Amino acid sequence: MAKTIMIVDDSVSLRQVVGITLKGAGYDVIEGRDGKDALAKLTGQKIHLIISDVNMPNMDGISFAAAAKQMPNYKFTPIIMLTTESDESKKRQGQAAGVKAWVLKPFKPEVLLGAVQKLILP
């Protein structure tokens, strides 16, 4: 059975690129336009990993991560931030919110897939 990954980014093209990378590696993908949209799509189904941008309208990635971690079904779901944001204080906020990895854009598909494979349990 394929593992499901949620991609949360306000950029349609970025969601497409990440989606193609993940689908090519055999994952199922759910997309969220921003944190608020993504939270609405967390309806109890099994999601093995979340990849989120930090800077988005409506709800940023760190607020989204913190909110997702409050939901019993997603408390242990690993979250990767895929972002242009390299500020240390943002990274610390992300860690405090439960973010497990920080990948900078522009990303190399193999780097992203490496992080995904480390965090998704077999």
What's the short story on this structure?
With 122 residues, the chain is of the alpha/beta class.
What does this 3D model show about the protein?
This protein is of the alpha/beta class and 122 residues long. It has one domain (4-119): Rossmann fold. It has helices at 12-24, 35-41, 61-69, 88-96, 109-119; strands at 4-8, 28-32, 49-52, 79-83, 101-104. It has a five-stranded parallel sheet, sandwiched between helices. α4 (88-96) links the parallel β4 and β5. The mean pLDDT is 96.
How many helices? The count is: 5
* Overall strand count: 5
CATH class: Alpha Beta
What would you report as the Rg, rounded to the nearest angstrom? 13 Å
Tertiary shape: globular
Question: Which homologous superfamily in CATH is the superfamily?
Answer: Response regulator
CATH architecture: 3-Layer(aba) Sandwich
SSE arrangement, N to C: EHEHEHEHEH
List the helices and strands and how they pair.
Blueprint: E1 4-8, H1 12-24, E2 28-32, H2 35-41, E3 49-52, H3 61-69, E4 79-83, H4 88-96, E5 101-104, H5 109-119
Parallel strand pairs: 1-2, 1-3, 3-4, 4-5
Core attributes:
122 residues; alpha/beta; Rossmann fold; five-stranded parallel beta sheet; globular; CheY-like_superfamily; phosphoprotein; Bact_response_regulator; Sig_transdc_resp-reg_receiver
